[in-house]
């Protein structure tokens, strides 16, 4: 996986690990892992998306993979993960993304995101039983 670059971004007091491939000026696809997985679950999709001309980013959520563990992990909520994602996108100066996730995380945050106005549109793809893709404006 030598084509995939790795770095750390400070968000909400934690150092989050991200893996990425593709040009910084291309449309961005963010891949969100399930639980208890890490970015590595999306490695093949990231390479394919990068070769198709997109910038692919896959973070490790707080407490997973190489990302910092919060001081009280048992108190982490879905809104903490959403907040981390928005802070990460802000830190990377990304204003619009496509999000791909295979977990309930996206379905739950979709309703929150629509209410808050940061979900512009959604496309549901049934690649497996619960894959969801959203276009997000930050």
From TrEMBL:
GO terms for molecular function: hydrolase activity. Residues 27-98 form the AB hydrolase-1 domain. Gene3D superfamilies: alpha/beta hydrolase (3.40.50.1820). Keywords: Hydrolase. The keyword Ligase does not apply. SUPFAM superfamilies: alpha/beta-Hydrolases. Signal peptide: none annotated. InterPro entries: AB_hydrolase_1, AB_hydrolase_fold, Epox_hydrolase-like. Coiled coil: none annotated. PANTHER family: EPOXIDE HYDROLASE (PTHR43329). Belongs to the AB hydrolase superfamily. Epoxide hydrolase family. This is Epoxide hydrolase. The lineage of its organism: Eukaryota, Viridiplantae, Streptophyta, Embryophyta, Tracheophyta.
């Amino acid at each position: 996986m030598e084509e995939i670059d790795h770095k750390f971004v400070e968000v909400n007091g934690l150092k989050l690990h991200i893996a990425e491939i593709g040009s910084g000026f291309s449309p961005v696809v963010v891949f969100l892992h399930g639980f208890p997985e890490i970015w590595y679950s999306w490695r093949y999709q990231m390479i394919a998306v990068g070769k198709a001309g997109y910038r692919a980013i896959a973070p490790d959520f707080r407490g997973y993979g190489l990302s910092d563990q919060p001081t009280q992990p048992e108190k982490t909520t879905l809104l903490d993960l959403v907040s981390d994602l928005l802070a990460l996108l802000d830190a990377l100066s990304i204003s619009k993304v496509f999000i791909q996730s295979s977990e309930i995380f996206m379905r739950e945050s979709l309703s929150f995101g629509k209410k808050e106005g940061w979900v512009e549109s959604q496309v549901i793809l049934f690649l497996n039983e619960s894959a969801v893709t959203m276009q997000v404006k930050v």
